[in-house]
Amino acid sequence: MVIVAGHLVVASDQREGYLAGCVRVVEQARSAPGCLDFSITADLVDPGRINVFERWETQADVEAFRGSGPSDDQGAAMLSASVVEYDVAGSRSLT
């Protein structure tokens, strides 16, 4: 399993527009082969932070989905980003 997690920072007055521009990407990812979960969401505390979380069956699934990255408009809106990919060997349910 592969987990991609982290956050982006945009100007707080641009966050809602940025997220609206991500709706189609989330829809496409969730229907992609190997996608177990995919979300891009507003942070509850920081008005400029956008949280990113993805869970994929394999690295090949991530690479098959991953296009050229954010659009030019999205890339220009990002003030900073900290997103990391993790290879996971196992998991256990907490519920």
Shape descriptor reads: globular
Q: What's the story with the biggest beta sheet?
A: 4 strands, antiparallel
Radius of gyration: 14 Å
Poorly predicted regions: none
Number of strands: 4
Structural class: alpha+beta
What's the tally of helices? 4
What distance separates the N and C termini?
19 Å
The helix/strand series, from N terminus to C terminus, equals: EHHEEHHE
- Record the strand order, biggest sheet: 2-3-1-4
Portion of residues in helices? 25-40%
**Average pLDDT across residues?**
92
Portion of residues in beta strands equals 35-45%
Secondary-structure topology with pairs:
Layout: E1 2-10, H1 15-20, H2 23-30, E2 35-42, E3 49-56, H3 59-65, H4 72-77, E4 78-87
Antiparallel strand pairs: 1-3, 1-4, 2-3
Description:
This protein is α+β, with helices and mostly antiparallel strands and 95 residues long. Helices cover 28% and strands 37% of the residues. It has four helices and four strands, in the order βααββααβ. The protein has helices at residues 15-20, 23-30, 59-65, 72-77; strands at 2-10, 35-42, 49-56, 78-87. A four-stranded antiparallel sheet has the order 2-3-1-4. The longest helix has 8 residues, at 23-30. The relative contact order is 0.32. The mean pLDDT is 92.
